[in-house]
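Action item from last meeting closed. Structure (90 res):
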């Protein structure tokens, strides 16, 4: 019996995912979203991962918690990782 090859999944595009974030955070993460959030430009990958996963599981967030929880609720681990990689390189 021959094993079927698993199809390679396309890589998640962090830049494309960030497009929806840019409306509030700026094209380069240089804005305080709605004048309330921290500026995310300059964050390292782990800091971004901690924040996004924290928003998703309800353990992180201040003034923007309600907004951000909705933004990340449906993101997969791979999408969160891709976003964290992209944001950490802004």
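Sequence:
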């Amino acid at each position: 019996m021959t094993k079927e090859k698993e199809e390679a999944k396309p890589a998640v595009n962090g830049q494309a995912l960030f497009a929806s974030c840019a409306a509030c955070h700026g094209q380069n993460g240089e804005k305080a979203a709605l004048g309330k959030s921290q500026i995310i430009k300059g964050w390292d990958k782990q800091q971004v991962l901690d924040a996004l996963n924290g928003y998703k599981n309800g353990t992180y967030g201040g003034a923007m918690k309600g907004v951000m929880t909705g933004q990340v609720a449906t993101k997969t681990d791979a999408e969160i990782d891709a976003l964290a990689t992209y944001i950490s390189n802004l």
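Note appended to the action item: Confidence is low (pLDDT under 50) at residues 1-5.
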